[in-house]
Fold each of these.
Amino acid sequence: MDSEIIEIEWWRLILAYIFVVVLIVILKWRSIKREKDVLIATIRMSVQLVIAGFILEYIFKNDHPLVTIGVLAIMVAFAIYTAIKRVKHNVPLQMKKLIAISLTIGVVVSLSYFIFVVIGLSPWYKATYVIPIAGMIVGNAMTGITLGVNTYMNEMSSQKQLVEGALMLGATPKEATREIANRAFDAAMTPILNNMIGMGIVFLPGMMTGQILGGASPLVSINYQIAIMLGILGAVALSVIVFAVLGYKTFFNERDQLIDMQ
Amino acid sequence: MFKLENVTYKDVLDIPELSISAGAITCIIGKSGSGKTTLVKLLNGLISPTEGTIYVENEDIKEMSMVQLRRRVSMLQQSPSIYEGTLRENLQIGRFFSELEPASDDEILDVLEVVNLDKDLDQDASKLSGGEKQRLTLARMLLLPADVLILDEPTASLDEESAHTIMSRVLQHCIDENKSVIMITHADEIVKSFAEHLIELKDGKVSRDERVEPTWTQK
């Protein structure tokens, strides 16, 4: 297999921005006022990736456990912040804490298992492996938990009467919200399951594409892709189940009464 | 059974003193927004008073577990809560919520007869009409061993004639089982027929609190 990577020269990269120009022309032509968003998105994507490139270059050349852990902590913290921001409701402090705990547990447990058991990485903090894998796991866990939280909060509002009815019949808050927790879990798992069903037929996943472009054999890259998909599945499931199981506590006071009723 | 002392709830309710005794049929009347549902939610422990004390059998409600209280004092919502599933599942869910063994088929048929609901138990409960749903939730409540049943407008979806028939059966069943009943209603006919204790609320205050003679006679 030819492992030579074709480097994209800077002027050729600039040519790729033609797609943005085309998009802006279309927006102007159709009078859709999104030019500003397109420009901001393009600039942010470019600047963020350039900065990330330099940072990763530095980190990869200076492998150190504390640096790897530091980067992971920043990634998880940013994911928690983004997940909370993406929730379409007012998020009370207790729920913010729960989102943070759930996401951290899901990511740490599945990433550790992946690094130590599945790949058997040595040294375990090798940033060239840990950071890209963590990126995929954290990103998917973040999307999963956002979906889970949104579903949970929507259902708590639309199904309030049923929850209240269950309480009136003597249910504990946990039992009264069990169905809602299950639906939130289900909603959070659906995208990753659909993704797995289409994988390899409808599209080639980013990691596999990257490895193939980097010169790896497709047979090697599928092993990684399968493993990472399972890791992502585990991280999403774990994050969301922690949230779903404990989520009800954020809606009830210590007297087992719905908080918004007080 | 219930004793309220200087109870307020936000600016909705202000009750210096009120007693509701066991074994009687108590009717709560009053215009919309007068605080009727808030009052019964306080008794069922769904909400706590802003100030004041509520005693249940001389025990301060603050010292009690709300889940245990709700198992002793069950409440029926004004608009019936129907859960996904069959009639049978909807009837059993109350016992499941209260952590009790499922009711036997005989017990189920017995309460369905009380509420005059003759339907296939394995049919989807969401397909029932409004009145049937209300009767199903009444039957579900009768399967619970609670001492007190709070009914919030139990006949709202029923026509006057069947409301009277069903309520007389439900109340007779409650009397037979030594249950007390507290009922919010807008129907004068129901009040005249069944109320032994009448409480009227006006702008969050008790404007009438008296013993009355029902026209209906228990068997």
Amino acid sequence: MNLLDIRNLSIELDTPSGRVLAVDRVSLSIKEGEVRGLVGESGSGKSLLAQAIIGVLEDKWHVHADRFHWRGIDLLRLSIDDRKALLCRDIAMIFQEPMSCLDPTTLIGEQLSEAIDTSQLSGYFWQRKKQRKEAVIKLLHKVGIKKHEQCINSYPHQLTEAICQRVMIAIALAGRPILLIADEPTAAMESTTQGQIFRLLANLNQLKNMSILLISHDLENLTHWTNTITVMYSGQFVEAGSTEQIFNKPMHPYTRALVDSSTKANLQLPTKSRLMTLPGSIPVLQHLPIGCRLGPRCPRAQQTCVAAPTVSNYHGHKVSCHFPLLRETGKKVKGSH
Amino acid sequence: MSVLLDVKDIAKSFKLKGHWYHKRKLNALSPLSFAIEAKKTLAIVGETGSGKSTLAKILVGAETPTTGKIYLNGQLLKNQHFKQRCQHIRMIFQDSGTTLNPSLTIQELLDEPLILNTVLNEKQRKNLIRTTLQKVGLLGDHMNFYPHMFSGGQKQRISLARAIILQPQVIILDEALAALDPSLRSQMINLLLDLQQQMGLAYILISHNLGIVRHFSDDVMIMSQGEVVESGKTIEVMRNPQHKVTQKLMMSQNFQIK
């Protein structure tokens, strides 16, 4: 069953010069126990989408969706308070730069015990304090911190970045979430610590069957850790499919360019040869092209691209393009969507 | 080919606070030597605290080495002689957004090194700025813009323009490609490679992305805790990593070359 099922979610922003469509009809579905990657360059609206899912956007952003289901419950029909209560229980989120997200004036132990809900503790009120501390230590062990006593009694600045991110994950785990949204959890980290954090997330996914939505701007870093990937560009849905489909047989020109420009995927290229790349730069929110927003940079663009393409489904590989790259011409089966 | 930059036994140690008959020293950099030829790229890979940024600072002259000498074209670079050094060795930083002065236009930004280091008049300087901006893929008219009007990739190009405007021989890229989006990063790599061929530049690339290092560099130097643990031709080192640190780095990025 789909855990999260979003169809045609749009996010609009009120600006002095009228409303701007920041995220344009993006669909996203997450199955139970799945690690889904959400890839997009800066300004592609991936963080906005994550914030819209957990409902922490400010009032100036307007969110619409054709369908927004969480485990079969239609969230659009619920009142705001009900929705918050539901999502708080089931979804947790971790952010980039863990150092700046933790309170610098409070001990790690206090911050962790704050996150533990009283309903999880059994026993009388005089036993609660001890139980709470035990729960904190258990959480720290879960994320692989062995020196729990030292960690509880330190402030965020006394710990390394990797440990801080582990503490953030521990705080997120305190509510026993079903879905963890990780918004660039390893940005600006060492590659060895990046590996540690990704491995921890993969372990949690395997052992606790927790679904993870992994957001990143770099396709090549994600491919090792995800089952399925959704690619976004400038607020529009580009392509979705399993990791193999996206990385080995990309259908959208943008995904193709991302894979081609990755130095890691093209090890057969001679060194110092020119890399494939798209011309131009990412459009800013005030000057978005009409239709397919990749249009001005796309090598395959034609006149029809001024109208936004619809999503077509090829064996679960969804692509939003007028002229997708179909290399196996014999297998062309156009499914319904 | 002749050696362009020759570094001999550079070392750096910092004095830590302590009692004065109980002084402690921190060795940030153990003695190391290397040499680069023109049109070649040396990559320096290592974790934080491995001394790679200290090495970059010593090369541009922001820090003075405790021991050792640096030769450029066979000429000894003196420690306090910035005029000679800053014309030939330039640096690009990781976060281009914060290294450009927001209150100056691009023209004023690029004018500064020219006023300080050359004897060109105003018209010549303006022409040089225009051609340099075109060289890095921007328009000459962009010189009247302020840094906030550019996107991240364009800002990085401006930093590059500032680096090449004095016709240097060595450019140090201190994680200059790390903060860019993938499609802009490959544009930037192409641009850097073109400029290397045109101007005969030598690059020193500090990076932890092994994919870029493999594609971009001829030689590689892997550092750990101030020491060079492995060095050689990039392809050979990556095909057959000998030291534990190298193996760990390659493992952590799931990186393998047959």
